[in-house]
Amino acid sequence: MKLLHTADWQIGRTYAFFEPDDAAALSEARTTAVERIAALATEERVDLVVVAGDVFDAQTVTDRTIRRLFLAMQGFAGPWCLLPGNHDAALAESVWTRAHRLGLITPNIHLLLSPAPILLPDQGVAILPAPLTQRQTNDDLSAALDAMETPPGLLRIGVAHGAVQGVLPEGIDSSNPIAPDRAEIARLDYLALGDWHGCKEINARTWYSGTPEPERYVDNDPGQILLVEIGAPGATPMVERHPIGQFQWVRWEQEFQVAEDVEALNERLSTLDGRFVVRLDLSGVLDITARQRLLENLAAVSARVRALEYDLSGIRLQPTDADIANMQADGYLSDVIGELRDRSAVPDQKEAATEALVILADILQNQQGAA
Asked: What are phi and psi of 195, to 5 degrees?
């Protein structure tokens, strides 16, 4: 038996902190990832696809978003098993009840809305779900799997969404807890988990697939789905990672100590293309000329990558005599520049005078460019 394990699609997620065209592309990538999952499921001739929660990003996604998701799934005609997570919990009125009213739940789509086994004898599988019926709980809902009885000969596949206690990095012990030995206690052949957005093995029978389309600057191996093969009940699963994501999110730090560091950063950024979403944490000291080169480089990079975030507030500006000499101005403005240069040497006036010099430099640069 072969299945694809995926989770945390979060269809309908928005990216308001990016430019509108970047935000639209990143949101669309979440749906096109599902199309690639369906295509891979067909190509690998898997028996079913298991989605371990957070199919949708929110209960309030539009009807159009719901329709587009189920259209994206049509590339695989076999069974889809969809578990509600904390973002799309199985409330009395939810995104799932709306999908039913829209007539989108076809016979091959199994919504795991209650903690009761779903038997798929043609695939030789019993699905044991632990759905979230509210966004957060302090109870381990996966404990219900222990008492679920299934017919002999069917593989027992558990599906849950939450935090495995005492195992995840960074000391995560949050709501929606899951016991680390749940697969053993519940006699599961495999436990498909969602909520942790990176791909992670808990033990031989328990895995997080992570989100198929990265959406954070976290290096935890996102952008994967898992191909799981199980030879027979009780056999150890064979789990294979498959990269599926479209974009890669990277976060780099750069401290400027000398002007040449600007070109070093630019050379590093030159290796990136439209597949990358980039966050730069910039700090250190630059003169005005080097700062201008940095801004020009960042403008070029912004057009080349999918999205670029950066913050210049951590950079301290230190104008040089050459910077001030390059500020070509006559008459009164020349006198102002000279006075600001003198004040920048006075400790309690340095910060304000330096900021004023930078503003003037930008104005004069823009005027020269317009001319």
From this structure: 115, -45
- Positions of the chain with pLDDT under 50: 371
Alpha carbon distance 90, 328 (integer Å): 67
Q: Which residue has the tokens 């950079």?
A: 315
What's the pLDDT at 362? Answer: 63
Phi, psi of 51 (to 5 degrees): -115, 110
Number of Cβ atoms within 10 Å of the Cβ of 219: 10
Q: How far apart are CA 351 and CA 63, in angstroms?
A: 53
φ and ψ of 187, to 5 deg: 55, 45
Are 256 and 286 in contact by the 8 Å Cβ rule? The answer is: yes
Residue type, 105: I
CA distance 206 to 200: 9
Q: pLDDT at position 350, please?
A: 72
CB 204 within 8 A of CB 237: yes
Distances (CA, A) of 40 to 47, 127, 191, 198, 315: 12, 21, 21, 20, 46
The number of C-alpha atoms within 13 Å of 104 and in the hemisphere containing its C-beta is: 22
- Alpha carbon distance, N-terminus to C-terminus of the chain: 70
Beta-bridge mates of residue 238? 229
Q: Which residues of 123-133 are buried (b: 16+ CB within 10 A; e: fewer)?
A: bebbbbbbbbe
Q: At residue 202, what is the residue type?
A: I
**Cα within 13 Å of Cα(113), Cβ side:** 14
User: What is the distance between the alpha carbons of residues 86 and 8, in angstroms, rounded to a whole number?
Assistant: 10
Stretch (H or E) spanning 315: strand 315-317
